[in-house]
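Our platform keeps sequence and structure together, in a single record for each protein. Nothing more is needed to write down the fold, since each code stands for a local backbone conformation. An entry from our holdings is shown next, in its original layout:
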Amino acid sequence: MCAATEFLCSGCAAKLAKGTLSQADVDASRALYALNRQGADLDGVELVRAIDAKRLAYLFLNSPESRLVGPQGRTIRKLEKLMKSTHVRAVRLGKGPLELAGEILFPAKVLGINKAYSAGGETLKVRTAKRDAVKLPSDLESLGGVLQFALGKKCKITFE
């Protein structure tokens, strides 16, 4: 990724136009590069994807998210300022589906995940408590897209 420059190279611009990269990926990469140049120890942080979910930006990593959060959350707060996002949440990929869904929907509690089969294919139903509906960090449509990326299948959030 062309994080060091203000302009994208032709390869990255083509990926952005094709949809392989999103503008959130570009913004997150540039912000992480700037933080690393400012002295934050982000050498082991590997960004897989960044998704903007209206009030919240999710950064999916292949490395432990504790390096990105930093001591007392200082690094993630600097990242929020650089990305001009209200909140940034770092999520490590490679965990179980229930744990991933729990991190994405936090502070709402995930009760379970069920598979539903239909003519359209397999859908995962992520079950949460009805009382936790107001605790969801973003709207249902945005969170469904974030869950779909993280879990690799079409997802629907249901309330019990």
